Amino acid sequence: MIALAQVNTAVGDLDGNSEKILDFADRAVEAGADLVVFPELCLTGYPPEDLLLKQEFTRGSMVAMNKLAAGIGDIVAVVGFVESDYDTFNSAAVVSRGEIVCTYRKTFLPNYGVFDEKRYFGAGAGSVVLDLGGIRVGVTICEDIWFAGGPVEEQVARGGAELVVNLSASPFNRGKHSYREQLVASRSMDGPVVIAYVNNVGAQDELVFDGGSCVYHPQLGFIARAPRFREDLLLCPVDFGLLKSVRMLEPRFRYSTANCPHDSITVCEIEMPARDSAVTSIAAREVAPGDLSPVEEIFEALLLGLKEYVEDNGFEKVILGLSGGIDSALTAALAVEALGPANVVCVFLPSRFTSEQSRGSAYQLADSLGVRLITMSIDEVFKSYLTSLEPELGPDAEGPAIENVQARIRGNLLMALSNRYGWLVLATGNKSELSMGYCTLYGDMAGGFALIKDLLKTQVYEVARYINDRAGRQVIPVEVIERPPTAELREDQLDTDTLPPYDELDPVLEAYIEQGRSAGDIVEMGFAPELVRRVITTVDANEYKRRQAPVGVKITSRAFGRDWRMPISSLARSWTLDI
Amino acid sequence: MIALAQVNTAVGDLDGNSEKILDFADRAVEAGADLVVFPELCLTGYPPEDLLLKQEFTRGSMVAMNKLAAGIGDIVAVVGFVESDYDTFNSAAVVSRGEIVCTYRKTFLPNYGVFDEKRYFGAGAGSVVLDLGGIRVGVTICEDIWFAGGPVEEQVARGGAELVVNLSASPFNRGKHSYREQLVASRSMDGPVVIAYVNNVGAQDELVFDGGSCVYHPQLGFIARAPRFREDLLLCPVDFGLLKSVRMLEPRFRYSTANCPHDSITVCEIEMPARDSAVTSIAAREVAPGDLSPVEEIFEALLLGLKEYVEDNGFEKVILGLSGGIDSALTAALAVEALGPANVVCVFLPSRFTSEQSRGSAYQLADSLGVRLITMSIDEVFKSYLTSLEPELGPDAEGPAIENVQARIRGNLLMALSNRYGWLVLATGNKSELSMGYCTLYGDMAGGFALIKDLLKTQVYEVARYINDRAGRQVIPVEVIERPPTAELREDQLDTDTLPPYDELDPVLEAYIEQGRSAGDIVEMGFAPELVRRVITTVDANEYKRRQAPVGVKITSRAFGRDWRMPISSLARSWTLDI
To answer: Strand pairing of B221-225 and B207-210?
Structure first.
């Protein structure tokens, strides 16, 4: 039997992570497993980023891995760790009888999107196949299975592997889980070989890891699936006969060594104790997908991302401003779901421009969520700013300068409460705003965590509706969802005074930012050239704001985080508008 | 004769950059040069970052390069551009008679520090040597000459190169220029071969490129040197005999192909017109270094970095708060030097805690710099905040929460003026503060550009003294330099209430951040374990603040910018304090 230990470990916490790994290994031994597999870099947490440039960290990982190996009981364990040798490697240690019997070094290092692995790691030059008492098991790490003709096929064709384990730390974005399952299935059929895929779970800064570990058999399909967004020890009774049977299958392609740069393959023989044959009697059968709907997985990712950021950074409570609008309402509802109502403090910060509807909605929402609501008018403070600024701006100043003052007063008040009580400020802006710069630096952008920064406005509504549907009641009052969006920084202001309607804006933003399409391509998709020109120019011009935004949960395939590295100084874009 | 065109091009401005390149090519033709060499990626500007992921940009670069080639006159030109083929390459186009006759693709792609070149580019697989009417000229790009046994030696040993040109975009940090010259000399002697090194000049976001192009002859030493921190067309009379003479020298090492992954070397023959022999009569002789002192080069880098950020982002004027302290004084003095006094607006924002000395210094400084000084007391606004916050914080609130309110009022007022008049806000914090989190998010950290964010406090004093020495007068009043630093956010506050004295703090910060040393190593250097523990723990805990800081000029080998990618969520550092 194999055990897939979908554990949640924390970046940098070698001691705590070691304990957790030992605990899961013990549980796997108790369950009678022969082999337990952990996620990529689970010992150090993923991604350690520039901690990897510290020798004391990479040395620490080596020391911790050796100590950990000595503590692992009667089972073969495969554990992701940082290996420090003539270079640094993203490695898997194979542990048996208290010792590291061999290591496999990740071969394909992703250096795109949020990934910088070539900044840190050397690429593995050799392949590893374990011989566990006659069963051949290949070892791969994450990216190694993302392309055909890589280490999996090599381990099957040259190393006789019947099972390949893959240690992953594959961050969530919407729709990625089903793509990953397709990948696992493809590599399995390419082999042919059984693949046991173990993914990380948890969150680290902007990244969420959604688990969803699984075992795929090229004939039977998925024979085991772990839940998503939470820890799990997935036990899969893969018996000897089932593994050997894959040898009878024809590979989908003829294997060529051209794509795999390994110059050697090591077979590591590990003596296995005779096991009770009970496990071999459980027939492996296909497991139905327990998949989440698109909105459910976004919801779960937001909760996990927030919860872990709060915990990992030593907070208990969060604070946020409620405006009566949808963005802050959704942020509050998610925070309550993640942390409980006692840990969410809301502040209503009305001004002369705040409508009665907004006030009503804010109170109703706080009531519905069961959270504490502090009300603090910003009008007196605003007046004192106007007085101070009058000599410079004149007596009847208006426009963005004055509007932004209000947003920044709110930011300052929230930060004062945060500084006083140690509550984490949640910024409430969405991706549509952040894309277009329709937000105030140090105002509504202020905060330690911008929970919904990667949700387009239309997705904000979608998640809000889901929360209500799920609860079977108006957790978020329907008026909040239905009213036209407004920043209420001047009389009768509407978002559409400044922005295109969101149902026109958001598809253009998605095409430009997430899909990386050019202006010409987007016009060809059917959008008006004027709209496209306006959106792209505005997005480009607002890079400086995004650079100072707090981190938040990555939901799309391209968030404004590590996967968006645009220059700020780049006004003259003579090439950009091919329309 | 060869011409080194040390041009300043802007990221993304293909049209403007093309014009500038043509202009320099024309000037090189007029000067009678046979060959003109431009910096790395000068056509697109460097670094284009994620613009390189846009097909319309890489296609645009191809189109612009072809158009540019057609416009270049009677000279051989080597121009850095983005080449789009089955992959994207960081390439040099060799242009003759209006056509691109061949391209060389950069082989060694830096993917460390501020560099992400493996995110964008494929590595070149072939080497290129030009045969210019009998003279063999190798072509390399930046990193290609940073290691022994690379393309330079290959082009000499296998391609018979007598001259190797290197197109660079090597960002400034203190001390790097002399290291670069040593590199050029080393590769030249390794060859042996004459090396013509052409570096980019200008600034892009946090990076400054300091020029300093040069030509090195393995026997004669530096036979030409361009100025630093400004554009130049460096003409170097390298005659045929001088080049051929390098063939008589012994290589320093025996060349092995082991380090250079090229699978081919192309010799590209280019017919050259018979030149007037006048140029060959000028004897090349060694040129003395016109090098800047350590503080001079920091000063020049700060000026160039600020000037370009302001221009490239469409600003004319900057605004900053003067506190009467050294950081804002230095920032103001630098801004005046870079932009002129008419383009610098200073604001004095006193509170109840502001001393008469601070007021005097601020006025004296504004007077000395000849800049406009707006005075705006924050006391009334501060009072109104205290009133609003009283129900939550109590009547006699004190501590960081209340102190930060003041800093954020200042930030808000500066931003209001910025928003109203389109002035760029300069943040004035230094690296010692930013390292220790001794700064207020959205307060003194607010701004579009943090000019001195990579200067430790002790370096702030150094540059301030240099400015006074250089001017031969107290540009910055000596009281400002000599008074003990204070944030003046409460009665009788001193920086040393919270921080170790800067002369103890800064060396520890430099060892930890810039040199990447561990706690144990720093203690071994002679610092007290308690100090080291305190500093490291505080630096680590304040990552969240740095993540929201504005960009600023990189001065050290490790700034808080693209070369510092630390996780925020990483509290549990069981490995970090090996003391």
So the answer is: unpaired
Does B277 score more than 50 pLDDT? no
- Residue among A167, A166, A169 nearest A115 (CA): A169
CB of B371 closer than 8 Å to CB of B332: yes
Which strands, in side-by-side order, build the sheet including B76-84? B99-105, B88-96, B76-84, B35-37, B2-6, B232-236
With a cut of 80, say whether residue A284 has pLDDT above it.
no
> In the structure encoding, which two tokens stand for residue B71, read together?
């416009």
**φ, ψ at A205 (rounded to 5°):** 50, -115
Q: Which residues pair with B207 in a beta bridge?
A: B204
pLDDT (tens digit, 9 = 90+) per residue, B499-521?
999 999 999 999 999 999 999 99
Tell me which residue of A543, A46, A278, A568 sits closest to B207, measured CA to CA. Answer: A568
Cα radius of gyration (chain B): 27
CB A346 within 8 A of CB A366: yes
DSSP code at position A500: -
DSSP A468-488: HHHHTS-SS-HHHHHSPP---
The rounded radius of gyration (Å) of the Cα atoms in chain A is 27
- The DSSP annotation for A549-571 comes to SPP----SSS-SSTT----S---
Determine whether the interchain pair A381/B388 forms a contact, defined as Cβ–Cβ distance below 8 Å. yes
Compute the half-sphere exposure of residue A2: CA atoms within 13 Å on the CB side of its CA: 32
| Residue of A308, A405, A567 with shortest CB distance to B412 | A405
Å between B243 CA and nearest CA of chain A: 39
Cα dihedral B68, B73, B75, B79, rounded to 10, equals: -10
Identify the DSSP state of B138: E
Whole-Å CA distances, B244 to B137, B275, B359:
11, 17, 68
* pLDDT at residue number A275: 55
pLDDT at residue B571 tops 80: no
Separation CA B79–CA B70 (nearest Å): 13
The angle formed by the CA atoms of residues A409, A411 and A415, to the nearest 5 degrees, is: 115
Percentages (nearest 5) of helix, strand, coil residues in chain B: 40, 20, 40
Element (H, E) at B120: helix B117-120
pLDDT digits (tens, 9 = 90+) for A206-237: 999 999 999 999 999 999 999 999 999 999 98
Identify the pLDDT of residue A578.
66
**For residues A570 and B11, is the Cβ–Cβ distance under 8 A?**
yes
Q: Is A214 a catalytic site residue?
A: no
Give yes or no for a cis peptide into A47 (omega within 30° of 0): yes
Q: What is the mean pLDDT of residues A44-50?
A: 97
Q: Flag whether pLDDT at A259 surpasses 80.
A: no
Facing residue for B10 by CB, picked from A64, A393, A572: A572
The yes-or-no verdict on residue A175 having pLDDT over 70 is yes
B564 Cα to chain A: minimum distance (Å):
7
Assigned token pair, A354: 């705040």
Query: Residue B278: pLDDT band by 50, 70, 90 thresholds?
Result: very low
Of B15, B413, B420, the CB nearest to A574: B15
Q: Which of B98, B96, B69, B97 lies closest to B81 in space, CA to CA?
A: B69
Q: Is A142 a catalytic residue?
A: yes
Q: Which two tokens stand for residue A32?
A: 């009678």
> Peptide bond before B171: cis, by omega within 30 degrees of 0?
no
Whole-structure pTM value: 0.95
Taking residues B344-355, report their average pLDDT. 96
> A279 pLDDT exceeds 50?
no
Query: Do the beta carbons of residue A188 and residue A161 sit within 8 Å?
Result: no
Q: Which residues contact B192 (CB under 8 A, 6 or more apart)?
A: B156, B218, B246, B249, B250, B251, B252
- Euclidean distance between CA atoms A361 and A476, whole angstroms: 9
